[in-house]
Design brief:
With about 290 residues, this protein is of the alpha/beta class. The chain has one domain: Alpha-Beta Barrel (TIM Barrel). It is built from eleven helices and eight strands. An eight-stranded parallel sheet has the order 1-8-7-6-5-4-3-2. Helix 1 packs parallel to helix 2, helix 2 runs parallel beside helix 3 and helix 8 packs antiparallel against helix 9. The longest helix has 18 residues. The radius of gyration is 18 Å and the shape is globular.
């Protein structure tokens, strides 16, 4: 299994009002993020607005990201659906395009029992030959992954990682204690990355890394070097970005931040709304504070 670690920005999906993916903008962003030292790229995470894109748009986003990466860093492609067969088809397609890993996300309309949740993720992992990162975000999903389900999934040869976007850092430690080396933990922007690194995390997949990539890589390097005082000084500074973003729609915030930095990524996909002028000022101020 190829090893993922470090900072994986959750990429935005720049889409025109007519639905066309702005491949040139996304390609430039990917190139610049790699130049800033990030360790990988994640397309179609929460920041990538996967729930608001059609199949053709999602495929175009993944293809563009893989072509821009040119093998320099691994690309983990988000797969999400309410139906297992659709999720399996997406995973197979993205592997064919050249994705190095799959971020498996479960959407749900009706409540789903643990056995079926486990079956959904297992079916995706069975369908591909590349590593699978299972994703859970109980704040937004109808279904969550229990510790028992995570432990069983960790035994699958291709499920090697979890990205947990709960705000419960204690749960991350429980996962690590229960699963050992069976599954490695990526932090989310809902957690304090340095704290997750301290307890044994291997990095973070998060939207804010799109707009503060260099600072994020610096934080990771400080954590890896065990320079915890310096890491926490930087972490406190960077946390202002997370605090600002927790107040508004995440995709709208990251797109506003990128727009301020000169990337013409456009607005979030309706019915989501772009930030108001006043909200945008909050993002601008946060970016100024972190340099």
């Amino acid at each position: 299994m190829s090893e993922f670690h470090g900072v994986f920005p959750y990429l935005v999906s720049p889409v025109d009002a007519d639905g066309t993916v702005r491949t040139n903008v996304l390609g430039q962003l990917c190139d610049d993020l790699i130049g800033a030292g990030v360790h990988g790229l994640t397309s179609l995470g929460s920041t990538g607005e996967f729930a608001y894109l059609n199949a053709a748009q999602r495929t175009e986003v993944v293809r563009t990201t893989i072509e821009a990466a040119k093998g320099r860093v691994p690309v983990v492609a988000g797969v999400a659906s309410t139906a297992t067969a659709d999720a399996v088809a997406q995973a197979k397609d993205y592997q064919k395009l050249g994705a190095n890993g799959i971020l498996a996300i479960m959407e749900a309309y009706f409540p789903i029992a643990d056995a079926q949740i486990e079956s959904y993720f297992r079916s995706i992992a069975d369908a591909v030959d590349i590593p699978v990162v299972i994703y859970t975000n109980p704040q937004f999903q109808r279904s969550d992954l229990t510790l028992d389900v995570i432990a069983r999934l960790a035994e699958h040869p291709r499920i090697g990682y979890i990205k947990d976007a709960s705000t419960n850092t204690g749960r991350l430690l429980s996962i690590m204690n229960r699963c050992g080396d069976g599954i490695r933990v990526f932090s989310a922007s809902a957690h304090i990355p340095a704290a997750v690194m301290l307890i044994g995390g291997l990095g973070w997949m998060a939207g804010p890394a799109c707009i503060i990539p260099r600072q994020s890589v610096e934080l990771y390097n400080l954590c890896k070097a065990g320079r915890w005082d310096a890491a926490m000084t930087l972490q406190r500074k960077l946390w202002r970005i997370n605090e600002a973003f927790a107040r508004f729609n995440l995709a709208a915030c990251i797109k506003a931040g990128l727009s301020i930095q000169g990337y013409d990524v456009g607005d979030p996909v309706p019915p989501q709304a772009a930030l108001t002028a006043d909200q945008r000022k909050v993002v601008e101020a946060a970016l100024r504070e972190v340099g």
